Amino acid sequence: TAKENGSSQYQFYDSVRDQSSLEQMILEDDLEAAVDNDQLRLVYQPKIDIRTGDVIGFEALVRWHHPILGVVQPLKFIPLAEKTGIIVPIEHWVLRNACLQVKKWQEEGIPAVPVAVNISQIHLMQPDIFENIISLITELELDASLLELEITESAMMHKEDHVIEILEKLKQAGISVSMDDFGTGYSSLSYLQSLPICCLKIDRSFIRKITTDTDSRAIAEMIISMARQLGLTIVAEGVETKEQVALLRELQCYNVQGFYYSKPVSAEEAILDRGVWTA
Ligand code: C2E
Ligand code: MG
Ligand code: MG
Ligand code: MG
């Protein structure tokens, strides 16, 4: 009957909700020990210049190998980590390990390209963030130009004076910063102009619809031409099809990242195909 259906449906949704909140509770309990217990791993996604097919850099993305739940994706634990502040030790781990990986590639004679690390708003607000990053690259004797940082548009919009000061110092130290997920925040043109950044990454939500939705295409086109005016590099995120590559080429956006070329992969797999990627 309708009533029975209704109640069993209710039970179904309820158990799904319980399950996911149970999972969240497990994650929350275990996250603090994840760094100490060596459960974090990095995967690397290449950034490609579509004109040449060259890998121009990598983005390091964190994964949590949970002993019971298996591989946990960042969207499941990064928000939690930000809420509890554990994001700071997590990102210290990410920074150190990404830098160690670049060093290793360099020592193996693999032509060096920069690796980008994501920095959360909480971490950006730490008073010692600049000193920590500098002491890390000094300790590892890493060329500063091989480390890049990605900060989301929304994270850059809190405490603007503080953000500008940190970015200014990073720039002077030779560390480039990209604005991530651009188009999803609401930063003003004048703020954008005042920020010492080198690059805008157009958010995947626009790229996904770029060949099918005229509004998304218009927005992408506007972002690309604005970035050009401001002297910023542009990277298109989430490129999945050859039609998207062709359109981006037409719009003169030559740097892309996305499943069309490669998913994020292990450090070992990342260097296997460092040659030319054909589109
Ligand atoms: P993000 O920085 O914008 O990274 C790009 C995300 O898009 C990655 O998801 C990547 O796997 C995904 N992606 C790349 N190309 C494609 C594509 O063609 N199609 C689709 N559907 N997706 C694509 P991932 O690795 O799940 O990371 C999600 C987000 O988690 C990242 O977005 C970043 O904001 C955050 N994250 C990852 N690692 C860290 C970290 O160490 N610190 C912080 N604060 N955030 C991190
Ligand atoms: Mg990113
Ligand atoms: Mg992004
Ligand atoms: Mg994104």
From TrEMBL:
Keywords: Membrane, Transmembrane, Transmembrane helix. Residues 24-278 form the EAL domain. This is Diguanylate cyclase. The lineage of its organism: Bacteria, Bacillati, Bacillota, Bacilli, Bacillales. The chain holds residues 523 to 801 of 801 of the full protein. The keyword Transmembrane helix applies. The keyword Membrane applies.
